[in-house]
DNA sequence: CCGCGAAATTGAAACGTTTCACTGCCGCGG
DNA sequence: CCGCGGCAGTGAAACGTTTCAATTTCGCGG
């Protein structure tokens, strides 16, 4: 193995000089710096991560807690992960993968044994049992999602409340008076996952304000569930003319099923979704949607961590304003 | 921070004794061992991962290369990852996340800087450009998937060739004489991803043997693509009575579309899929399928790595025999 | 030509483990 | 009673960095 010593000898300088060239924490003359860099290249030197971590108490690793068992919104999760890994690498950080299922103990272990410098937790629920433990960690922590007691924690997420309101505004502006919501899986509401509840709040509250009648129906991620859900929402007496879909798993089948039941989109019924842009655009009929800005949220989360690692401490909840893209699946009520 | 020194003092033994209690590499008397363990517990000691790595040149981390951009078979990928992480943890290993997109350089960096002890690569393609570099790594490497030149590499995968043959056997046994294959995305075939090609080989070869006519149609992961694909495969002159789906992305819509076109499953057309069991079971009509044993493949891959880390070196290609579950979506030709 | 301050470079002490070589100690056979 | 083998436990030297404090070098004004 090539060590910093070899590099130093090869470049004719001391070990510490090489270290300073690498870290840039001291001014090094142009000439020396070049010589050292060349030696590093020629010898193919890579600093030993463990030794580095030991001496500097910085691992340059961040722990990422991912929900893996979720059969629901996998594409969204992957977008988050992808953006997080990319952004982390841009800051010269690697990502250690932990699963949500293994709980807060694993996070504690990883931090206590100095395997990572900071923690990023995805899919945080309203009453998330991990939150108290996370709060105690002596390292920066950023949550994607917002728990009930968010004070003193850094959180990043789409503003689901505003999103709920926004979709209603959109439909109300088009003249719709009765709208249905195809919600997430009942399980999601039961365990109080924040985003579903918050979306629903914004949705309901805005509808009340605008005098729009609402029909809410959670929907399990299966075809029969969707079928029943649509059957219920489209009962003639409800006179639903606008449909909001907050459920990636069944999104693909919604338009198909509507079509099969003889409802054209958007002529007979307007459809608007809350999902990643790519997904909305890939539907049989491209769907008007509010984007889930996974890329952006992931990047912001990592940037926040980096700032935390540099000593900043103004923890806060950052909610991103919803952006609505009209793809023609909504139209004025006839 | 609590160090091994603190533990030693607290337990009234030497530092090395504590280390040996932890590693079990030397016999330690029952009494001492208990005393040390108690001190560890009471002080909440966690060995410093970096120091450990430095002294032992073992990180207890394995690098996992995951394809993140793939919009295709995400649930399958997640199953792999989940199983890998779980198995790794059972061996006291953590998992470092690398993305396929960042290429072999990142893998090299991670190994060269001793951030991980071994590498697990998912989604290996037939002519994978990363393979030569992976071969040079001075650490155990296991691939999930099989490249063209697999000699000297450890590979684990479902036997896709046998799977292709198996589905044809199944349909042929039921009397079907003309079967269609809804394949993976054209992109998958183009980049020569091994599994798609191998499945196709087994499929074609067995059909020839059994005198079954085949109609192969790759299918992009979008509704219009599926629609066109079905239109093509179901042309009356083809007389297709059996349909094989090797495409998780459109699987959900296949049965819906068939139904819409007035074909009942399995009365008018038999459908058999290659996908995870859970997915086949969750369809509008539960589908007869060959399982993609992600759990098992992931676990075997990790176990193989662990053996490699213990010095074993009988590298080989392990192909798992396909298992077919009949869920009633296939029937005798009428 | 000398001395001074700033800039560049260096030596050596951490950092927290593992592991090798060694020391005590105990019991047993001669 | 002595010596010997084996078991438990210990001391100290790695492991490859970072970083503090100290030293050397350099340019410049006096």
List the helices and strands and how they pair.
Two copies of one chain form a homodimer.
Chain A: H1 4-11, H2 15-23, H3 30-43, H4 49-56, E1 61-66, H5 74-90, E2 94-99, H6 103-112, E3 118-121, H7 131-136, E4 141-144, E5 154-158, H8 160-173, E6 178-182, H9 186-190, H10 194-210, E7 213-217, H11 223-233, E8 242-245, H12 248-260, E9 270-275, H13 277-281, E10 288-291, H14 294-309, E11 317-320, E12 324-325
Parallel strand pairs in A: 1-2, 1-3, 3-4, 4-5, 5-11, 6-7, 6-8, 8-9, 9-10
Antiparallel strand pairs in A: 10-12
Chain A binds a DNA duplex (30 and 30 nucleotides) through helix 2 and helix 4.
Q: What does this protein structure show overall?
A:
Two copies of one chain form a homodimer. Chain A has about 325 residues and is α/β, with parallel strands linked by helices. In chain A, about 45% of the residues lie in helices and about 15% in strands. Chain A has helices at about 5-10, 15-25, 30-45, 50-55, 75-90, 105-110, 130-135, 160-175, 185-190, 195-210, 225-235, 250-260, 275-280, 295-310; strands at about 60-65, 95-100, 120, 140-145, 155-160, 180, 215, 240-245, 270-275, 290, 315-320, 325. In chain A, helix 5 links the parallel strand 1 and strand 2 (about 95-100). The longest helix of chain A is centred in the N-terminal third of the chain and has 17 residues, at about 75-90. Chain A is elongated and about 85 Å long. The mean pLDDT of chain A is about 95. Chains A and B meet through helix 4, helix 5, strand 2, helix 6 and helix 12 of A and helix 4, helix 5, strand 2, helix 6 and helix 12 of B. Strand 2 (about 95-100) of chain A pairs antiparallel with strand 2 (about 95-100) of chain B. Chain A binds a DNA duplex (30 and 30 nucleotides) through helix 2 and helix 4.
